[in-house]
Write the structure tokens for this entry.
Amino acid sequence: MIRFSGLGKQYGSVTAVRDLTLEVQPGEVYALLGPNGAGKTTALRCLATLLAPSSGSAAVCGLDVTTSPLEARRRMAFLSSSMGLYGRLSARELVAYFGQLHGLEGAALGARVAEMVELFGIGDFADRLCAKLSTGQRQRVSLARALVHDPPVLVLDEPTLGLDLVSGSATHDFISRERGKGKAVLFSTHQIDEVDLLADRVGVLSRGALAAEGTPAEIMRRAEAPNLARAFLALVGDAPLAEGPRT
């Protein structure tokens, strides 16, 4: 349902992603793991039609995201921490607005908004303006907004960023349930424990290229490491697993 075929992205003389080839199948959770600057966010933005690839291609449900961007978008949810919320709308209004953009209306829209409010624990602040929400609350509303149309493909750029332990756990449970429904999930993360908890397969990115791919157990065997954290460090060399500007 998700396919990268030799995808590359350059900014002038800087190569952010090089020759990225991978697939995510229905009912699979695939984690992109890498240090800052590895190319995770750039790759996901190309998939989400926000950036044009410099080379290669990306597809969602068989639709090339460059030649059929609108149809591809209808089939995916995309979450990025850099995507703002409309500050003058309440959390509930914002989720409903994005549901309408995706063709939901009437009772079906109301039911789906109520489901998202319940699922992501938005009820206590559902009628508060988005401009007045905390970082964690904004992240939960962003998740609800991205997923309100119930698409078959989920593309999540650090979905638990800014969430506390309880909210993060609810998000993990949601991803697991969506996998159980046969959806394809591709997410990026800096957190090794999220990969251990959720991922069926892992792609380790380093300096824009796929350094390794496989199940967590396969990654550990390849790196001859006792755990995924040690395997990651062995594969990326001196590239740190740390917070900071992302590409």
Observations:
- The first helix runs from residue 40 to 47.
- Confidence is low (pLDDT under 50) at residues 239-247.
- Strands lie at 2-11, 14-24, 29-33, 55-60, 63-64, 76-79, 153-157, 184-189, 201-206, 209-214.
